[in-house]
Amino acid sequence: MSTIMRIAALTTVVLISCATTGADEAEPKGRIGSGERLYRAHCTLCHGGDGKLGLNGSKDLTLSVLTRAQMIEQVSNGKGAMAAYRHVLTAKEIEAVVDYTRSLGKAR
Ligand code: HEC
User: Fold this and answer.
1) pLDDT (tens digit, 9 = 90+) per residue, 25-52?
2) Is the pLDDT of residue 54 over 70?
3) From ligand 1's centre to the CA of 83, what distance in Å?
4) Fold classification of 31-106 (topology level)
5) Nearest CA, atom 11, ligand 1
6) Which among 108, 106, 64 has a CA at the least distance from the CA of 82?
């Protein structure tokens, strides 16, 4: 094997291990991730980083008048264009992401 090929093979191994580590970071399923990390992974697409994006008919989360329990219910079971997250996140993770979501409103 030439030196070039050895370097290429080694680089591939390093890249694969980096990619695997990255996937673990982004997919905290089954572990309790921070609410912010979960929000950034699952909610910014429609709600935006600050909760105000309102894409696909989603509400401005900073103006929401829902209680914590109502938010947990809606995130768990979904509504309209928003998917049910009980299949994606654990109950603890849904609580964490809802608490983070609520903190966006208070920061207003
Ligand atoms: C595919 C787009 C989409 C994604 C992704 C999404 N949502 Fe929503 N969300 C919506 C839509 C649409 C509504 C409005 C539903 C309705 O009332 O018909 C909504 C409404 C809500 C509400 C209720 C606001 C109110 O006052 O009525 C909360 C809370 C909420 N989303 C939280 C979240 C959280 C937390 C996540 C991430 C776990 C998330 N959403 C991901 C589209 C999305």
Assistant:
1) 444 455 555 899 999 999 999 999 999 9
2) yes
3) 8
4) Cytochrome Bc1 Complex; Chain D, domain 2 (1.10.760)
5) 58
6) 64
